[in-house]
Amino acid sequence: MTIARTTLLTLLAIVPVTAGLVACSPLTAINALSPGGASQVTHDLAYGPLPRQKLDVYAPKQHAGPVPVVVFFYGGNWVAGERGDYAFVGHALASRGYLAVIADYRLYPEVHYPGVLQDSARAVAWAAMEAGRYGGDTTRLFVMGHSAGAYNAAMVALDPTLLARHGMRPQDLRGWIGLAGPYDFLPIENPTTRPVFYFPDTPASSQPINHVTASAPPALLIAPKPGKDKLVDPERNTGKLASALRAQQRPVTEKYLDGVTHATLVASIAAPLRMLAPTLDEISAFIDANSQPAPQQIK
Q1: Residue 35 confidence (pLDDT)
Q2: pLDDT of 14
């Protein structure tokens, strides 16, 4: 292991986790050590008129034809986060031949639920309309997130009212990927999270598990092994949501990875930390399995 990787692992071990994120210093280090030579990056694209409605696109420099599109939402307990801190996710996905869209979204106290979700749905709708300009295949569209961002991804994929505002349906997605997401978290215990969801008057409709239907898109749910995540209980959230999807006979892949915590699960996507867990390999396998070209309509 190189000195740089040893130093980075030490930082990840000693820096406290706040609101579901590794603090900024380790994220900066991860980005600095993540190769971006395979990516063509376009920054600061607007998907709406407001300051936080911006996104960055990471396209593979070499590809044969349009590639699958993955819209990624970061965590931060809906109170923090910047898309630039997750450049390593964009570079990693582009290195596997996918077009990555890393989107900001409005946070509390600017918005409450469901405002954060409306921004996420709007970013996905932007990708469905515009990703083709950057080499993406908009018929092979995925949504992905970590922690609070996994919640956003889940709701966009499961609650049809969100995409309906943009003339889309969850079935327009080829699949969705959740990393250590909260999907069934009532009553809310985290004091930072409570005002985001109007606790104690949090509506049941805010919970992804309550939107599972027989038409839900395929899902990949990844979490640390039970006992490794001190912020989002994998059994209560990932496990229960996977069971609910299976009960509706929906395709779901459920993975619990050793060697990672809540924060380092997303960090393990980065090139210098892939020895922690095969997170990127699992994501790639899921995208590839669900990215076969759409069958041509019979005329």
Answers
A1: 78
A2: 38
Locate 223 and state its tokens: 């979490």
Taking CA atoms, 178 is separated from 252, 266, 298, in Å, by: 11, 10, 35
Total residues belonging to the chain = 299
Residue 141 in contact with residue 286, Cβ under 8 Å?
Answer: no
Domain that holds residue 87: 3-289
* Bridging pattern class, strands 136-146 and 175-179: parallel
pTM for this predicted structure: 0.91
Q: What are phi and psi of 55, to 5 degrees?
A: -150, 165
In a domain, 294, yes or no: no
- CATH number assigned to the domain comprising residue 277: 3.40.50.1820
Q: Which two tokens stand for residue 263?
A: 């924060």
**What is the pLDDT at residue 298?**
37
Number of domains in the chain: 1
3-state SS string for the chain = CCHHHHHHHHHHHHCCEECCEECHHHHHHHHHHCCCCCEEEEEEEECCCCCCCEEEEEEECCCCCCEEEEEEECCCCCCCCCHHHHHHHHHHHHHCCCEEEEECCCCCCCCCCCHHHHHHHHHHHHHHHHHHHHCEEEEEEEEEEECHHHHHHHHHHHCHHHHHCCCCCHHHCCEEEEECCCCCCCCCCCCCCHHHHCCCCCCHHHCHHHHCCCCCCCEEEEEECCCCCCCCCCHHHHHHHHHHHHHCCCCEEEEEECCCCHHHHHHCCCHHHCCCCCHHHHHHHHHHHCCCCCCCCCC
In a domain, 8, yes or no: yes
Residues of the chain with pLDDT under 50: 1, 3-4, 6-7, 11, 14-24, 296-299
Considering only CA atoms, which of 27, 78, 291 is closest in space to residue 181? 78
* 299 belongs to a structural domain: no
Does residue 296 fall inside a structural domain?
no
